[in-house]
Amino acid sequence: MDADGISLRVAHVLPRIGDQASGPSYTVPRLCQAQAQAGAQATLHVLAERRPAPAVGCALHRYPLLTSWLEWLGLAPAMARGLRRFAADLDWVHNHSLWMLPNVYAGRAATRAGCLLAVSPRGTLSQRALSISPMKKQLMWRLAQRAAIAPAALFHATSAAECADIRRMGFTAPVAILPNGVEIPSLLENVQHSALQAHRKLLFLGRIHPIKGLPDLLRAWRGVQDRFSDWELEICGPDDGGHLAQLQVLAAQLGIARVSFSPPLFDADKIAAYQRADLYILPSHSENFAMTVAEALGAGTPVIVSQGAPWSAVQEQRCGWWTPVGEAGVAAALQQALATPSMQLREMGRRGRDWMQRDFGWDGIARRMLASYAWAQHGGTRPPWIHLD
């Protein structure tokens, strides 16, 4: 293997890739693809789902569930066997996410084969994430999950906050802090910008889930809607657990004007939605990375992001607002952002797009991850993004 990790053999393990609204369903296959394009022998191992697998740019291995009754757990003995076979010829197994059996199979296969294990929690160790179904997670942690990832030679975090989560759980292995990459779309010439429409647009795009802080957004919007009558709010995404209906009831109770709820968008339609919007907003209580922020910035749209997401740099890069979590913080940011002239917002969007192109390209992220593997395996000069504390 080369000192920069280019020629290594790595298997990426993720339970699912079929949920297009989930960040890891896009970012993990894209990382695998970028590593393969850089020269590594990178493969992706996932559970087979009812829906057809989306196209991925790397070798894909799918394993059937033993029974749909335990789909939430991901019981797939065929995957456990397949990973053990693959691991015998690997340098690394890289596990992504936690709390399903594929995330246990990955660690066990690496340990049994004597290859190295990398672990990307993908937000699953945040205190907010741990508070969801806590009894199931505590049981899984004690029975299998902790032991499966304890031998990790390397952890990967997408932010300093996630690195702190890893340390809080007692792990001392080196942590590579690397963001997710982002595709930079072409600017669509045929997009009808809101400057040509009756209202300017504030967009939320993502899962409709309580962790996203959308009740805070609706209550904050009620407080600013009369002052900014030239703005409209669009909430776009898939319902998660019936939360959409709760938001619709809340909007009616609050007497909110100029708010719409739209179904999820993907691919070119999603890019067009970002580019039609004047502002993107993410009022989440907790985010590991918040891929939609990177996507919006890559599309040239400035952002409002809560401090539940690790995007303080939007202020340093002058392409958005980073505001405290909760109704008051969101309302304060809206007061400033909605009063910003359109030309200034477009300039902020250009700065954000330039930033994404400069620092978040997939080729660079993949090569830094490969260099992280190589350093953890062979030593040498420690890359500056790897943290020991």
TrEMBL record:
Species of provenance: Magnetofaba australis IT-1
Pfam families linked to this entry: Glyco_trans_4_4, Glycos_transf_1
PANTHER family: SULFOQUINOVOSYL TRANSFERASE SQD2 (PTHR45947)
Superkingdom of origin: Bacteria
Any one GO molecular function term: hexosyltransferase activity
All residue ranges annotated as the Glycosyl transferase family domain in the record: 199-354
Name of protein: Putative glycosyltransferase
Alphabetized UniProt keyword annotations: Transferase
Keyword Transcription: no
Lineage of the species this protein comes from: Bacteria, Pseudomonadati, Pseudomonadota, Magnetococcia, Magnetococcales
InterPro entries xref list: Glyco_trans_1, Glyco_trans_4-like_N, Glycosyltransferase_grp1
